[in-house]
Structures are given as structure tokens and as C-alpha cells.
Specification:
Radius of gyration: 23 Å
Order of helices and strands: HHHHHHHHHHH
Shape: elongated
Helix content: over 70%
Number of helices: 11
Number of strands: 0
Distance between the termini: 49 Å
Oligomer: single chain
Structural class: mainly alpha
Length: about 270
């Protein structure tokens, strides 16, 4: 009786240099960002949700409700309205993040990405980068619509640019929450419904459309101390002039806190998604 013995030799393959891994990861992120943007551009429903709905909000509140809501700001109600509409649009745009991730899980796209020789982080980072580009375009379009209906920046060019950047940053932060929701619920229809449950109260029970002081006393406490109001008040101060320090610190703390909580949760949900 003869036996054949085979010797298995473990070959140590050196890891590529750190710089090489970073370059490869960035290339993966760029590829997935391009992919997500192409999907967005080729999907009419995405275009409708991104642009048409906020334009409708601008026109409705400007011409239907605006005459019934007294405000004391330079330029009248349209100047009060536009920072709120821009912030709401940035928040609602995060629906696309949750829905897209849920759809990718249902269709097995996430599993296929995991099987490919690519950076694991590229899926979420590419999604977030594409959402940032989408938010910039969306916010600029809404500001343009605002100018068409009478809105004007009253505080100079630099504060106007800072307002746009704050709106985009706010939208990106909300995208981290939506990413966690989409990766956790995993069902496209359920994700769409859940987004309405938590985003609508936050945006409407805020200073977006009416002064907080016009609300009942018991509701003012919530409206004054929630992140959407804080960010909108800072955006309004940047656009129209006013005290910046308090709202700036509050906005920064709220956004940093949301990131600190939901980025790890989204990463964890992504690792468990299947």
C-alpha cells in the first residue's frame, strides 16, 4: 500500500502599500459614484422626486399660503420661506438613499459588490458622494426657483454660499440616517412609508414655514429644540442677516451628533445586510 503525501506551502503575499490601497479605494468610490449618478439621470421618477416636488412646494407656499402667514423679515414671506424650503428639499432628497439601498439589497446587488475585488467602504462612500452631487444640483435649482418668485439674498455673497453649503451638509447628514433606515428595513415600499413618518413631522413642526412663536406653547418647546429648526434658523440668518453664533454652534453640534450616531449604525447595518 502506497501513500502519496503532498506538502502544502503557505505563501505569504505582501499587502500593497498604504498609498496604493488608498488610490485603489478612491478609484472604486469614483466608479460607484458615477454608477449611482447615471442611474439617477436615467430614472425619470428620481428626477421628478428631486426637482418637481420642491418646486411645487415653493409655488404653493409662496402664492397659496404666503398671504395668510405674517412674518417680520426683509423681503416678506418669500424670504422667510426659501431657507425652509431649501432645508426641507435637502432632507427629503435623502429618501433616494434609503430606497436605493433597500432596492440593492432586495436584488442582491450588495452581495455582488461584496464578491468583487473592491474596497468594502466604496459602496457606502460612493452612494454618499453621488448624493452630495445630487444635493448640490437640487439646492441650486431650488434657489433659482426662489429667485424667480421674488427671493433675494440680503446678506452678501459669502453668507449666501455658506447657506448653500450648510443646506448640502444638512442633506448629507440626513442621508446617513436614511442609509441606516434603508439597510435595516430592506424593503423598498416600507422604507418609503417610514421616511414620511419621521421626516414630515420634523420638517413641518419647525421654523421652515411658519414662525415657531405662532405654534401652541406645548409644541414650541419641541419645535425650538430640534435639529431642523436650528439648521433653518442658521440658514435664514445667513441669507437675510442676523445673529449667527448661537445657531451656528447648535447646528454644528446637532449635525456632528447625528453623524456620530448614524454612521456607525449604517456601517454595521451594511455589514449585516444580505
Amino acid at each position: 500500500m502506497s501513500a502519496t503525501f503532498e506538502t502544502l506551502v503557505a505563501v505569504s503575499v505582501p499587502r500593497p502599500p498604504v498609498l496604493g490601497r488608498v488610490r485603489s479605494g478612491l478609484a472604486d468610490v469614483a466608479t460607484l459614484t458615477k454608477r449611482e449618478l447615471l442611474i439617477w439621470l436615467r430614472n425619470p421618477s428620481y428626477i421628478f422626486f428631486t426637482f418637481i416636488q420642491p418646486v411645487m412646494f415653493v409655488l404653493l407656499f409662496r402664492y397659496v399660503f404666503g398671504g395668510a402667514i405674517p412674518v417680520k423679515v426683509p423681503g416678506g414671506y418669500v424670504s422667510f420661506l426659501m431657507p425652509g424650503i431649501v432645508a426641507q428639499t435637502a432632507a427629503f432628497a435623502s429618501f433616494g438613499t434609503a430606497i436605493a439601498l433597500a432596492r440593492q439589497i432586495q436584488k442582491g446587488v450588495i452581495d455582488r459588490f461584496r464578491a468583487m475585488p473592491m474596497a468594502r467602504s466604496a459602496v457606502l462612500l460612493g452612494r454618499l458622494a453621488a448624493d452630495t452631487v445630487r444635493l448640490v444640483v437640487t439646492v441650486l435649482i431650488i434657489v433659482g426657483v426662489g429667485y424667480a418668485v421674488g427671493f433675494r439674498f440680503q446678506n452678501g455673497v459669502v453668507p449666501a454660499v455658506l447657506m448653500v453649503l450648510l443646506a448640502v451638509g444638512f442633506g448629507v447628514v440626513i442621508c446617513t440616517v436614511s442609509g441606516f433606515v434603508g439597510l435595516t428595513i430592506k424593503d423598498e415600499e416600507s422604507v418609503s412609508s417610514f421616511g414620511l413618518v419621521w421626516l414630515f413631522p420634523l420638517t413641518f413642526v419647525s421654523s421652515a414655514f411658519v414662525p415657531v412663536l405662532s405654534m401652541p406653547g406645548w409644541l414650541q418647546a419641541f419645535a425650538k429644540n430640534q435639529p431642523v429648526t436650528t439648521v433653518i434658523d442658521e440658514m435664514r440668518s445667513l441669507a437675510l442677516g442676523g445673529p449667527l453664533g448661537l445657531h451656528a454652534w447648535q447646528s454644528a453640534l446637532w449635525l456632528a451628533g447625528i453623524i456620530a450616531v448614524f454612521v456607525p449604525l449604517a456601517v454595521r447595518a451594511y455589514r449585516r445586510a444580505s
